[in-house]
Every structure is written in structure tokens, then in C-alpha cells.
Amino acid sequence: MIFLTRRATFSASHYYWNEAWTPEKNQQVFGRCANRNGHGHNYTLEVTVAGEPDPVTGFVVDLKWLKDVMEREVLAAYDHKHLNLDAPEFAHANPTTENIVIAAWKRLEPAVTAAGGARLSRIRVYETPEIFAEYRGEA
Amino acid sequence: MKAYFGRRYMMSVSHRLHTTALTGEQNRAAYGKCNNEHGHGHNYFVEVLVGGAVDGETGMVVDLVALDEAVRSQVLERFDHANLNLDPLFADRVPTTENLCRTIFTLVKDALPAGELEQVRVEETENNSFECRAGG
């Protein structure tokens, strides 16, 4: 089994807010991230697929294909967007790095599975070089 | 839904790889330039990965402030700008990055709620890194 990883970057803005809470509680829990005018990050999306190299091509997946899938399914929805306002999955859920990585999995998994061959193994989303979230498709 | 949250920290630390179980010549053979008598140092990157359910109210897996505090108090204050060979935890163990990785895993695990710590990765240089995982 070979694990193959491809990176891409996207730039997006967001804020953290729980509608069920008072403004004071939002400020207390989320601090500067609760600023309703938002702030932004250069995110790095790291997608790992697992499979056996094809006997003819030697590829686990075609990297150009994987790049196109990442751009179509994730970057088109998130790059240069306001996550709270532009991505429907964050209309009522906080676009934390944890929730972004799970949402990215849901966006990518059907396309990877439909292609046959490699399976989606792991996704990481880096909010900064020091902070990232990871999802492995676990319940 | 289980997800993982990772955070990277840097610490500047000196050490010398040397064991009294070997002769001077054997130490030089085993550890090469890392056996230099007066030691040497690295900028270590420590990557801490914690796992858990994503909280429905906050969208978060872990309290980042609490994680930072655990790593700062247990690891960075202890090792940053220090000499590993002089730390009691390495009194009878060679401060290889393998042993450092295990030590950091234990220190952080004990400072966090049970079962939260998933993995510790220590990068000694851009080319060398070591991982220690829960249950391993």
C-alpha cells in the first residue's frame, strides 16, 4: 500500500460565532476569532490517498487528476471566499479548522471513491504553519 | 465525529549522544559527530496531535489554550534553551530524539485529559523526524 499526498493552498476569511449564545459568551469563548467583520488565513489543504501502484502506469492516482479534483471540489468553494457567508456547510456551523477538514473530506470522498482504485486516507488542513486539523473518515 | 488537531512548537536545545555503557571509541563509532565532547544543539519542532469528537457548540476538538499551556509548562519550559544531558529524565538514558519523543509524549499525555493525545512528532532537523503514537 502506497500513501500519496498532494498539497494545495487557499485563502479565505471567517469568524467564529454560536448563534445560540450571547455576544458576551461568544467573545469569551472565541476571543478575537469572534470579530464579526472576520479575519483570514492562507490555508494549506493536504490530501492523502492510499492504494497500490497501477502495474502499467506505476501511479497510485494520476496527480493531475487529483489536483483537478481538489480544485473542483474544495478550492472552487473555499478559495478567496468568506467561509461563513459563501459555503453552505458553514451557514450554521463554525468554520473551525476541525469542521473545515471534515467538510473537505465530505466534498472529496465521493469523487475519489467514484474514480475507483485509490481510497481517501487522510486530510489535513493547516490554518497556519503551526496549526492544523486532521480527519481520517472516522465516525 | 472524531477529528484530530495538531499544533507545532519550536525549542532550541543542546545535547550529546554518549553512554557510559560504551568505551570512548565505541561511543564515537556509534554516535559519530553527535558524540562531540561538548555537545551540539538543534531547533527542534515538536508537533502534538490530539484526537476527539468535534464539540457541537464550538466546532473544536480541543481547548487550544489548555493544549498550549500543557506543552508550555511540561515541555518548553523544561527543555527550551536547556541541555538535555543535564535533565534528570535523561540521567540514565541517552538523549536521542527517539528517547526525547517518548519523554515528551509521556509528559504531554499526563497533562491532558485521558485518551486525548494521539501522536507526538519531533523533527530534529528538516531531514530527521521521529513519531510516537498512543498505544505504541
From TrEMBL, chain A:
Pathway: Purine metabolism; 7-cyano-7-deazaguanine biosynthesis. Belongs to the PTPS family. QueD subfamily. Its cofactor is Zn(2+). Its EC number is 4.1.2.50. Keywords: Lyase, Metal-binding, Zinc. Signal peptide: none annotated. This is 6-carboxy-5,6,7,8-tetrahydropterin synthase. It catalyses: 7,8-dihydroneopterin 3'-triphosphate + H2O = 6-carboxy-5,6,7,8-tetrahydropterin + triphosphate + acetaldehyde + 2 H(+). It holds the Pfam family PTPS. GO terms for molecular function: 6-carboxytetrahydropterin synthase activity; metal ion binding. It comes from the Bacteria.
Automatic annotation (TrEMBL), chain B:
Gene3D superfamilies: 6-pyruvoyl tetrahydropterin synthase/QueD (3.30.479.10). It catalyses: 7,8-dihydroneopterin 3'-triphosphate + H2O = 6-carboxy-5,6,7,8-tetrahydropterin + triphosphate + acetaldehyde + 2 H(+). InterPro entries: 6-PTP_synth/QueD, 6-PTP_synth/QueD_sf, PTPS_Cys_AS. Keywords: Lyase, Metal-binding, Zinc. PROSITE patterns: PTPS_1 (PS00987). The keyword Metal-binding applies. Belongs to the PTPS family. QueD subfamily. This is 6-carboxy-5,6,7,8-tetrahydropterin synthase.
